[in-house]
Amino acid sequence: MARGRIRERLRRSHLHPFSCLRPNANDSEGPNPLQGPGFSRIVHCNQPHKHQKKPLKYCSNYISTTKYNIVTFLPKALYEQFRRFANLYFLVAAVLSLTAVSPFSPLSMILPLAFVVGLSMAKEALEDWRRFAQDMKVNSRKASVHKGGGVFGYKPWQKIQVGDVVKVEKDQFFPADLLLLSTSYDDGICYVETMNLDGETNLKVKRSLDVTLPLEDDESFKNFSGIIKCEDPNPSLYTFVGTFEYERQVYPLDPSQILLRDSKLRNTAYVYGVVIFTGFDSKVMQNSTKSPSKRSKIEKKMDKIIYILLSLLVLISSISSIGFAVKIKFQMPKWSYMQPLNTDNLYDPDNPGKSGVAHLITALILYGYLIPISLYVSIEIVKVFQARFINQDIHMYDEETGNTAQARTSNLNEELGQVETILSDKTGTLTCNQMDFLKCSIAGTAYGVRSSEIELAAAKQIAMDLEEQDTQNINVSRYMKSANKEDSRGGPEIELESVITSKCENDQKPAIKGFNFEDSRLMHGHWLNEPNQESLLLFFRILAICQTAVPELNEESGMITYEAESPDEASFLAAAREFGFEFYKRTQSSVFIREKYAHPGQLIEREFKILNLLEFTSKRKRMSVIVQDEDGQILLLCKGADSIIFDRLSKNGRIHEETTTKHLNDYGEVGLRTLALAYKKLDEPEYSAWNNEFVKAKTSFSTDREAMLERVADMMEKDLILVGATAVEDKLQKGVPQCIDKLAQAGLKIWVLTGDKMETAINIGYSCSLLRQGMKRICITVMNSDVVAQDSKQAAKENILMQITNSSQMVKLEKDPHAAYALIIDGKSLTFALEDDMKHHFLALAVGCASVICCRVSPKQKALVTRLVKEGTKKTTLAIGDGANDVGMIQEADIGVGISGVEGMQAVMASDFSISQFRFLERLLVVHGHWCYKRIAQMICYFFYKNIAFGLTLFYFEAFTAFSGQSVYNDWYMLLFNVILTSLPVISLGVFEQDVSSEVCLQFPALYQQGTKNLFFDWYRILGWMGNGLYSSLVIFILNIVIFYNQAFRAGGQTADMAAVGTTMFSCIICVVNFQIALTMSHFTWIQHLFVWGSIATWFLFLLLYGLMPPTYSGYVYKLLAEALGPAPIYWSTILLVTVACILPYLVHISFQRCFNPMDHHIIQEIKYYKKDVEDQRMWRRERSKARQETKIGFSARVDAKIRQLKGKLQKKSSTSVSQNCMASPS
Amino acid sequence: MEAVGQAILVLPEGIQSDPNCSGYLPDCFIAVLQSKPDSKFTQQELPACKPILTPKWVVSAFMIIAIVFIPIGIACLLGSRDVVEVVERYETKCIPAANINNKVQYIQNSDANKNCTIQMKIPKRMKKPIYVYYQLDNFYQNHRRYVKSRSDKQLKSSKNENDTSSCKPENLATGGGAIVPCGLIAWSLFNDTYSFSLQKNNQSLAVNKKGIAWKSDKQKRFGKDVYPKNFQGGGLKGGGDLNVSVPLSEQEDLMVWMRTAALPTFRKLYGKIEVDLEANETINVTLQNNYNTYSFNGKKKLVLSTTSWIGGRNDFLGIAYLTVGMICLALAIGFTVVYFVKPRRLGDPTFLSWNRGPGSH
């Protein structure tokens, strides 16, 4: 019994990831009531009414994630708006426009500001409303609460109070942090899934106090009461300190009795618990951090441009006010027509300084047009549209989950086009966290005919390449042809093709979870006919018995499913079940197997007594069970990493070593995870002798208990006999290798950060092609993981530093340009590597490596690594993950992407974008990112261009008005300029522009580099656009002024007044900027046509209609177009001349650039334009394959390697070997 | 396509119903477009024309511009050359020799004789109508203080007579009554007058002062019931006076004057001479030199000009057209040459970045 207890405890402690963190002090402290700061919480169980008054009143279970409420919305949202510098500037300008210094009417200043700010605030309000709706949904979830008298009833979550007793049923979330009282199991165990908290998918066991076990039905809570004294709310998920006073006894509490909000009850019918922490006090809420608001690099740069424009604004305003002061002082006294003696402060010749200062304000307002007020709001609108396009992209719609991609913030759309490094989680992101039993090798024979994904894709690629090379008449294909002639049975291509097609069709989905094995020799009991059925039997039994899973009967289907610690184990059990060895029951001491032999209906139920269980640890890399079968035979069954097992084989156990090793290598090559299985028969006395040692070791309480246990276990696990090996495929998510490949071709670096073991991570690295054979692996680990004492820390650190510098040296000295390095580092080493003095060495090394895998990393380390990459390389990083453990990194990265679809939404909630499968990342980045980047970049450049072109004409004109601050344009023109007349075309540019179609983006991943290299928003281009604006403003102004100098402008003899000149100038500006944007666009749908040409039409229409309004409103504009300008040929010819003269340099520039220095998208546009891709498909395909970045990782690199190897073989042998090899299947 | 459309229709509901999946972006902006989901729109696959600048297009664009611009330029130039313009500067000439050193005093002295006669020679035959302009220089009619100092409402209707707040400092008469028309612009009304006669027979040439203002000004902006009041009543006289018995809608000189000019050098229409003038004729102009430009050293000029379809004499437009046209012609030829000398086959993949540069493979 004692032994069983210990075993159980051992087992449990393994299941607890935080067992080591459990404060031991608490045990020794005993039931002393906790006191002092930080431990002040008192909970009266089952007496929630006691918590309604102050000292004991805790916060309610209502949660709110909204930024505003009805009262605070206006002040807070306004504050947010006017924190933007540009908005503040315009606010000040609007206030000043109410005074005499303003050159404009107040309305023309206030209206656009109100529009812009109002729109942004409306967006804020809507977003916050959605958050509120989300909160309400959570708050109104129902939970079963004790209402008194042993009656339970449903209450919404928000009504739950501290002290309430709640009953949570299977697969429900815990509404608050609870103290577990009792469960549906007699021993007070329940299983909890904490995926929302830490991203771990395996179940955790929680166990109630023994004293509360009798509280097992509703009735028993009638008179239940108790007092919990515990720590104050804190964010630490894995600690809890408290005491429970029940029936005059005080019991200590530890984290294993605490059920945390947002985790889920699994495998347990129901539990009862007392609410300890509610709402914001709960650990998960304490853990939630405000997601940082992120801004894209482009936007940050845009701020810089705004500062430049601001300096320009201040500069010309100063020039203007100095000029004004000088004119006032020296010339104004002579201007008799202005009554210089009868002036006010603004025009005081006696005090030009004062007037100059007042004029500075006027000028600052006047030239405010240099800073586009509508820029922010236009960008906001554009981004909302872009986000909608992302959301609605049918190609990112996951049919299985029904989820679309979601742009959860629109701030970062363009940042998607500039990503340099992707930091990815593994479990649930790259993989489905599901293992499929694919192949096995038993007693030297390889079984399993299905191909892994790698094999399939390699075969496909080879087939394509061969075909291509064939047409290109390259050596190999010539050889192949001759080979074909020799071998009249047909070429290898045909066979390859058939491999692909047939495999692809029937390999879609395994019917059984975890089992994707096919081999008629083993299935359906046929294994009995195999020669070595002894070994087969043993193999299956090891699969079924050597495990720690819990079987669970699915009542609907009658099938047994397994809750296993690792998905590998689940797949083994599924395989064993399919082979006819169904594990169906586990008791404290036994495992029950239902064995089904060839004859149908013949089931033999066998019980295997578990004598000992030797745990799997990452250090041991093996697990063993010692069982006694019904015949009394004691067996040690062992499974573990092949190298470990092979070291421990007995002499006669090595019969199959050679063949098995070969098979294992084959499996490894195609990305499968392998384990070797072995066994050993034990005599009774031999066993009991060992067991005594083992028990002794187990019960000892010395510090080296672990080491002792390990040593004892080591004694047992030797002289094994090899049975075989398994190969499971860690099921990657659909399309992951292809996606990684494409992303690598687009020039992105991919880092994998995973909490998994190093071996697992490496395996995954192989299967998703981040690692490949022939890559040089740099593994950085802490040599002696046991030693974590203070004094040796320094030594460990130095050791890590040495490893890093050595590796860096090695990478640096590498001569071969094709050599690829992979860096693999574990969490412990990472703690040292991330310290300030070392992180740069680490980063330098990591950047030099083709792929980086960090394993065993904590969520915090993930965030730290992300920060290191982000800040160290100054490049855009993207973090992608699915679990709560990825939240830190998602928030830290420049862009956080969450994988939705699985249950946990924590990552998605923290993310900026969510997609339902990793493979959609390709489209998100390569298509949407590319587009959005170009759109926003072009849009901003154009915005500055148009405002400079417009704003500077104001300045030039002012110089001609003695710097008096008079504008040549009507206030309404200016008001409409930014808000209506030029905004829609630029918005349509930002929303609809496509340099190339989405297919081309995907076909030519290299185009993505235009974003990472920032070709469209570099200073050269920005300044070019500004220069263009300057040129346009000069041309517009000078031509207009000279043409309308002083002579009559029409046959009627009238000369042009200010209104006519201003209107002509403004007409020119409208035409120029709209033609300019038409030249900038390369993609015209009817919408662009409508907006661009419509804007020009709108201007003339406006002019006409405004001129028809009574003159008290329209002033000088009254009938201006109809009477004065319209009939004058000079008006129209000026517009034509100015428009052509303004766009001429740009037209020359783009013609010249396309002619002599075409960019990639230009060429591709041309190819598409001339339909060359259809005519010359070979060229098209060739260019597509070339349009990859030189990659060292990814599928292609791997396939390349494989092809190289193949070609070598091809030249040596006959063509038949080709097919065999690439199928890599046993024959 | 049908199927895709349906799928799109379903999506938003799918999102809504997913309890975990809210908090996405506002869709109010697109609500209009959403009402009829267009798969091509949401999938960004709307049919589009994607013009590219092929050599053919580039050359023909420049060619077309050249072909259009050069004739326009020639036409403008011819139009401008048709115009006969005679300019006579008189502000110094018309100061009596005695007053040459105190021009300002002279001009401000209302008792002094301001009459002055100048001659203008007609170089070419001028066909009627011949427009008479006065041209002022260094006169900031576009100054903000000046431009603002007027009241459109007051000008329009007698009801708004007292709407003079914008007219400061020339808004109220010394007695407190509103000045009509108020403001600096009206106050500084130009008041030199000209009368013309042919030198050869001393036959006077009638100057038609009707129809020099815009029709819209006469009909709508200057009221028929608004009569000058308190005008130039103050101690300081800024310029011309107005006949108080004539409504503003008939005061065309005022209308012309109140259309403020864009530049400090400007011409304004004075009247029309509706007879042809022969070449080499000399015209005597008798003028009243009343207006004070002497305090700010402003020039005064008298201009006689005919017009053509492009208005008065200004070669610039034609020259500019010709220049741009020529540049485009040169560019068209240049690009043609370039395309021949160094042709790049369009869509030639060898120009793709991965096929050139150091990293090619």
Most extensive interface between two protein chains, with residue counts = A-B, 134 and 119 residues
Radius of gyration of chain B: 33 Å
Determine the structural class of chain A based on helices, strands and strand pairing. alpha+beta
Physical arrangement of strands within the biggest beta sheet of chain A: 14-33-32-31-15-27-30-29-28
Average predicted local confidence, pLDDT of chain A: 79
Which strand-content bin applies to the residues of chain A?
Answer: 15-25%
Tell me the β content of chain B.
5-15%
Query: Major beta sheet of chain B, specifics?
Result: 5 strands, antiparallel
Task: Tell me the number of structural domains of chain B.
Answer: 3
Quaternary organisation: heterodimer
Low-confidence stretches of chain A: 1-34, 472-510, 1214-1227
- Helical amount among residues of chain A, as a percent range? 40-55%
Query: Based on CA inertia axes, which overall geometry of chain B fits?
Result: extended
Q: Whole-Å distance between the termini of chain A? A: 52 Å
Distance between the termini of chain B: 40 Å
Give helix and strand order of chain B, one letter per element, not per position.
HHHHEHEEHHHEEEHHEEEH
Percent in helix of chain B: 25-40%
Instruction: Work out the helix count of chain B.
Output: 11
GO molecular function, one term (chain A): magnesium ion binding
Binding site for Mg(2+) (chain A): 425, 427, 882, 886
Organism (chain A): Salix dunnii
Biased composition (Polar residues) (chain A): 1213-1227
